[in-house]
Amino acid sequence: MSVQQHYPWHNSTWQRLQQSRQRRHHALLLRGRQGIAKLDFANRLAQSLLCQSPLDNGDACGQCVSCSWFAQGTHPDYRLLTPEQDAPEGAEAAAASGKKAVRKSTQISVTQIRELAGFLELSSHQVDGRRVVVIHPADALNQTSANALLKMLEEPPANVIFLLVTSHPQRLLPTIMSRCQQVEMPTPAEAEALAWLEQQGVQDAANWLAYSGGSPLQAAEAATTGNERLQALATRLAQGQGLDPFATASEFAMLGMEEVMTALQKWLYDLLAISLDTQPRYHLNSLPALQALSKSVDLSELLAYQRDVDSARRSASHPLNNELQLEHLLLQYSKLFSSKART
Ligand SMILES: [Zn+2]
């Protein structure tokens, strides 16, 4: 948690919040699409709220004792609530299967909210007594923990500011939403995102930004870590009818289910777009292969398959079944293409 990086697409939201500083709500819901650094924004705001002598633009000074606590990640009046590592269920299941626990809990538990209540009962360490709680992602609250949090939002402890962060506001309880001031964070314009990516030294920025659906952070990450894996996926999928579902499934399973399913969904989106004579959006590096495949695909079968993949993803099953599920999906995939081109 060193110096907060400032992203150009945050500027308008930052200025708007500074203008309304005097009538600040005790709970803000920062919402916007995945991969635009909402958590960084929340932390920047948290640091500035705790800073003893903020700058004119509202940013933290970076010099005071509060800022130095914040930079070290030890600020006593700041809490970040996020799903805990190694959920007990995950650990048990992993122990039973003899595998190492690698699954991260996806929920913020009621125990975590109770601990938060305990923290908020104590008095703050600073003169003005302000404390900041960041909840990320707020959609990780389950029914019980959300209700426990709701009680706090309904009767907020003095001088506590809650910053809830989410890419999926529709998954929050309406009662939680209604207790928060909504702060809609914009997705950067393409030119802005590209300029930022190029500044970060990302090669081939336009392609990665397209693949990541316009999210600059995901594009930067995909460009640094995902390049080879993505190429491997695209190479296999480009084989169409000739793809070996069994060999490919075991290869894909090692890449991680989440990434494979995302790549597959985007691949199908593009295949459909080309078949319908509209613009493909994601796998722009594989256009010749997609065009070739589109000539031998049956449109109604493709649509049905796309629905199967979407529902397979939603039901994201146990990790042990991943390879089996992939075999099934890839077998279906290879059958989408006929040996002779359709007219
Ligand atoms: Zn400061």
Automatic annotation (TrEMBL):
Pfam families: DNA_pol3_delta2 (PF13177), DNApol3-delta_C (PF09115). GO terms for molecular function: 3'-5' exonuclease activity; DNA binding; DNA-directed DNA polymerase activity. PANTHER family: DNA POLYMERASE III SUBUNIT DELTA (PTHR11669:SF8), REPLICATION FACTOR C / DNA POLYMERASE III GAMMA-TAU SUBUNIT (PTHR11669). The keyword Nucleotidyltransferase applies. Keywords: DNA replication, DNA-directed DNA polymerase, Nucleotidyltransferase, Transferase. Its EC number is 2.7.7.7. It catalyses: DNA(n) + a 2'-deoxyribonucleoside 5'-triphosphate = DNA(n+1) + diphosphate. Residues 229-333 form the DNA polymerase III delta subunit C-terminal domain. GO terms for cellular component: DNA polymerase III complex. GO terms for biological process: DNA-templated DNA replication. This is DNA polymerase III subunit delta'.
